[in-house]
Structure formats: C-alpha cells, structure tokens
Fold this protein.
Amino acid sequence: MKLISSMTIRPNMKLADLIDLNHNLLSVLSRLGVSLGFGEHTIQQACEISGVNVSSFILICNVYNNDEYAPSSTLLEQADVRDILKYLHNSHIDYMHVSLKELELLMGDMLQNYNASQKSIVEKFLVGYKEEVRNHFNYEETVLFPYVKALIDKKETNGYSIDTFEKNHGNIEEKLCDLKNIVMKYLPQTCDQNLRYDVLHQIYHLENDLRKHTLIEDNVLAPLVSRMEGGL
C-alpha cells in the first residue's frame, strides 16, 4: 500500500487508481455497495452508478487514508448522512459475522496444543470482548441510528442529541491491544508459529479497521448530525 495520507481524493480520479493506492478501501466499496467491475470509471461515475453520494464516499475514504483528517465544511454540506449510516451499519455486520468469526476460528486452531488453563484464559477474553462489541453496536443500532433517521424525517427525537452519544462513545478497538500482547508476548511457544502470525495479522487488521470506524463516527457522522440539529 502506498502512502496517500496527504493526497486529495477527487471525484474525477479513476476508482481503480484509488484502490491501487490503498487496497484497504475495498472494504469501503463493499460496505457502501459499490460493485467491482467498474472498468475505467471515475469515483464520481462509480458512485452515481451505485447510488452513493460521492462526497460521502470521499469523506469515508479520507478517514481511511489519514487518522488526522478533518472534513471540510464543503464536503460535509454535500454529503448524505444516509450513506454514512449505511456504511456504519454494514460495518457492524461485517465485524460481528465475518471479522470476529475469522479471528475466533484462527485462535481455535492456534490454541489446539495449549493446555486447558491457557485455552480458557484466551477464550474467556475473546468471549468477553465479543460481548462488549455487540453491546456497543447494539446501542448505535437501537438508539443512535434511529435518532439520526428521525432527524432526517423531521420527527420527534425526545431530547436526545449527538452530544449525548459523543460523551459516552468508547473506543472498542483498545482491548484488542491486550489480546495482541497475550498472543505475541505471553503464550508459550507450543503452537504452530504460522498460526500465531495469522492470528496477529487478523488482530492488527481488525484493530485498524475499528479505529477507522470510530473516527468516521466522531469526525464525519457527529459533525453531520450536529449540522442537522442546528438546522444548517
């Protein structure tokens, strides 16, 4: 992956060129429903074909490219919050039903040669983490997202606000650091080292993707919703 943290993503860029610069953006395409087979289409053309707001797409891609990215007022004005919700909702599905399941299977293979006590420690940690992630996502799906949809439809919101969400918004990727350290530093060398590396690669990938997820909520969704609340 080439470093593109400082580049400007433009609607007239070819989508294939953007993905070649950062292949992690494939997950953005998948979660927003932008199909592969886009040929020589630009970002603008591919988004139009897939029914995705191009400013929303660029906002999300910019966060993926640069943790320090701060959205411009122009992009926020042009973005569609429904696309951001779609991305976040599909991310939740991806994490719970794909990424965490893959991690669980890899860890199961890795732990085969450990004793019952060692297995129990790691398995208990993973079960607890999955429950924490499930609760985190459930709050967003049942409280935050319906609130934003009510704002879109100009319905009663019962005094809730995006500030309430922000004050209680934790970073669910932080605990993965503990799991990473257990696997990398403290488990005895009695398992296939390749399996151990596979587990670490999966943890690092998930940790990075969850960090981007949090940044999209804090730096894209929150400002968009704040603008809606203010009637801007």
Summary: The mean pLDDT is 91. The chain has ten helices and no strands.
